[in-house]
Guanosine nucleotide diphosphate dissociation inhibitor
Amino acid sequence: MDEEYDVIVLGTGLKECILSGLLSVDGLKVLHMDRNDYYGGESTSLNLIQLWKRFRGNDKPPAVLGPSRDYNVDMIPKFMMANGTLVRVLIHTDVTKYLSFKAVDGGYVFNKGKVHKVPATDMEALKSPLMGLFEKRRARKFFIYVQDYSESDPKTHGGLDLTRVTTRELIAKYGLDDNTVDFIGHALALHRDDRYLDEPALDTVKRMKLYAESLARFQGGSPYIYPLYGLGELPQAFARLSAVYGGTYMLNKPECKVEFNEEGQVCGVTSEGETAKCKKVVCDPSYLPNKVRKIGKVARAIAIMSHPIPNTDESHSVQVILPQKQLGRKSDMYLFCCSYSHNVAPKGKFIAFVSTEAENDHPEMELKPGIDLLGPVDEIFFDTYDRFAPVNEPSLDNCFISTSYDATTHFESTVLDVISMYKMITGKDVDLSVDLNAASAAEEY
């Protein structure tokens, strides 16, 4: 391999594939390699036989579950915000032409032992059984403040500088109780723990606005969308995009050893005795284990069921957020369910995931609050994986390493990592100034 590439990307996880696509569109010469013989890396989707092989070794799946090929079980299950950053990236790169999406039926929150629909607007707040009458009025005033807030129009700020006022101080102005704060912070603003309360309120207000805008986009029961046939379609779509712009793909390349020069800068990647030269390397943590540190662990259960999750209005696709305080934990738990309506299982079958940041070494016990909400399951698998973050200095070694996927069942944190890596690599921001209204649901998806 005598050619020199601007960037070699190692691993075909979603983050790596998005970056490969964006860099190829920018005109960079990209070589994309993976030690696996399939796309998706950690974020792949498995059929039933692959799922059994991964978790049950040589056992065969029971025939009663239906054909293996009808299953697409995500290994990193996540929904997309309909107005979120990932959708903007998809539209900006025109990847939407390779994919079909469908709205997700519902967004719910666990509160005082019960599952409730998440109220996202002032009108929904008035109807919600989550709050008593007086609390509803207070919450409605807060929602109206958030809906009307515009960064560029001081008249909407209510005399507050949200870059200085903390979320706790803003919420205190409206006198909301802890339960209301819990679902606003975790189920609407999608914070993963309670640190946000002492941080500037602007971030929380922007997150709540994104939720409401995403909800309005489809006039559906949730702000989320999800691709037909599962998330495994996404890395392949970005791989196709990269190829259209001249990117080269090589799967099933063993070893993939990153080479460095005397100054400690990356200079190439060696596989099967051949070295491809490059200026920069993008990869997931598994390719450069000595440049990352462990930052946590995700515990997850995967369940195959013959019914929707109880108390979610028979939703065929749904997210339920279990805020940390409701469970006496340090971090939230997430429940994700999809079914044959998104072509990820045969007719009549549902796939549910329960995931959280692990706080001990017993996933069966730790995930019990989420599993208890599922009702009877046909089969259940437990899994844990370590999360890693880079500790290198990319400006010195030209290695750009993604952070492992977290336990959240939405894509906001994933895409922010991609966008920050893109800026480090190219020195510029991704252009996300797409008109989402022009790219309306009907036309795009």
The longest helix spans residues 201-218. The longest strand covers residues 292-305.
